[in-house]
């Protein structure tokens, strides 16, 4: 992810954080996590993308639903 992509993600995360309630740092952390997960979900599936999604606490179930694949197919991508 380059600087321009991250800047665009932050532009999406700030309004999302403003809608939430509570501590600003916690809201920003959650909104950045949500926006990053959505960004990676839009990318074509690969081993690197799956690893980044798991790193950002996206569940296998959500990955399977997004890419319309079974858990075994996702695991096969991971083992490549």
Written overview of the protein:
The protein is mainly alpha-helical. It has one domain (3-78). Helices cover 75% and strands 0% of the residues. Helix 1 packs across helix 2 (24-41). The chain is elongated. The mean pLDDT is 92.
Features:
single chain, 80 residues, mainly alpha, 5 helices, elongated
Brief sketch in words of this structure:
The chain is an all-alpha fold and 80 residues long. The chain is 75% helix and 0% strand.
Q: Largest sheet, if any? A: none
The backbone outline, from C-alpha atoms, is elongated
Number of helices: 5
Give unreliable regions as ranges. Answer: none
| Secondary-structure class | mainly alpha
**Mean of residue pLDDT values:** 92
Count of extended strands: 0
What topology does this entry show?
Blueprint: H1 3-19, H2 24-41, H3 47-55, H4 60-67, H5 71-78
Helix pairs in contact: 1-2
């Amino acid at each position: 992810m380059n600087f321009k992509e991250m800047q665009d993600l932050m532009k999406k995360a700030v309004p999302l954080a403003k809608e939430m309630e509570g501590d600003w740092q916690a809201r920003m952390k959650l909104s950045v996590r949500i926006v990053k997960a959505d960004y990676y979900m839009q990318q074509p599936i690969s081993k690197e993308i799956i690893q980044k999604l798991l790193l950002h606490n996206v569940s296998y179930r959500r990955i399977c639903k997004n890419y319309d694949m079974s858990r075994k197919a996702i695991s096969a991508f991971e083992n490549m």
